[in-house]
């Protein structure tokens, strides 16, 4: 959840105010019509260049990928680029509508400064989710035939993501149950899943287990459901800074895409390649639409993403990992989120008192954040590295996220042929 204090949508009806205290209707309308800050194009261009150059080098030159499969990836990339521009254009439009409905918040990490009094439109992750779904559905026209074996699972994946976007928006408005909502949204995927339910036993453990392959049956689907719950909530609780929720998604999605291309290029098994291509078809539009939102959500944020986005992003990456059959790798990509969850567990379990906002303390005089004793990675970094600005702290956390992804690639490289 973003570092904001949500405004009450029914405050005008629940409290009595003097006529002089009320904001004039024209002032309210003007505030709703006021444009949000322009997207931070410079940041997006740098991030895009940093990722796209090595990624498309791998796709076009380094690996000998079948022409048909390469074409599908490039068509999906072109649609993802279109989704990026549509999202950039739609966010300012949507912001005016949510402001009219009093869906806005105040940035807690800027309290006591002029920026802390600005109404920031809330729940704009709904734009990213809708644009993602529209362009992912359009991609079916170019890639899947009516008798495609992957079409059922692709549509089931989109159904779960769509369900999660809807429930995430409901949670933003009504404050729903964090654990139940992702479980419900994962049902279409779990019911339609027709892939294998086996796991490969690591080679060092084979003599002790007595099996090389273990069929988990219904337990595998239970694991899929738990993974979906973890991914959605782990993005949601590793938050509180401008750009952190979207930034970590951008980093993980980039790592997922590079991992998939490497696996496609190194494999000769057609089904294995298709599983990773399937993952790419969902990860590319996720990355593109997230970059569009990042251009508004980066410090200083002019748009809050809401639970809608964190649930959508977490579910999409869970679906990508499950149907691409690399859930172990995905969990290593999520290493900072796992660490943040373990730090948060005593408070989430009620062992230690848990405040509503487990945020660092902001000093309006210096503009610096100070870590508290709350169990989050954000506060841990501040306690270890000292006071710093919100922007600098977010950069540190995103660099840590990138290092975790690099560690995963190194781990896979050194354990290849020995672990599995």
Can you walk through the features of this model?
- The protein is mainly alpha-helical and 420 residues long.
- It has a domain at 67-326.
- It contains 17 helices and 7 strands.
- The chain has helices at residues 11-14, 25-33, 41-62, 67-100, 125-143, 151-174, 180-185, 187-192, 206-209, 218-237, 244-266, 270-297, 306-323, 327-333, 335-348, 377-385, 390-415; strands spanning 4-6, 104-107, 120-121, 198-200, 213-215, 361-363, 368-370.
- Strands 1-2-3 form a 3-stranded antiparallel sheet. A two-stranded antiparallel ribbon has the order 4-5.
- Strand 6 and strand 7 form a beta hairpin.
- Helix 5 packs antiparallel against helix 6 (151-174).
- The two termini are 38 Å apart.
- Mean pLDDT is 87; it is low at 8-30.
CA-atom Rg in angstroms = 22 Å
- In helices, the fraction of residues equals 55-70%
- Which spans of ≥5 residues are poorly predicted at pLDDT below 50? 8-30
What is the overall pLDDT average? 87
Oligomer: single chain
The ordered string of helix (H) and strand (E) elements is: EHHHHEEHHHHEHEHHHHHHEEHH
- Please give the alpha-carbon distance between the first and last residues: 38 Å
Quick one: how many beta strands?
7
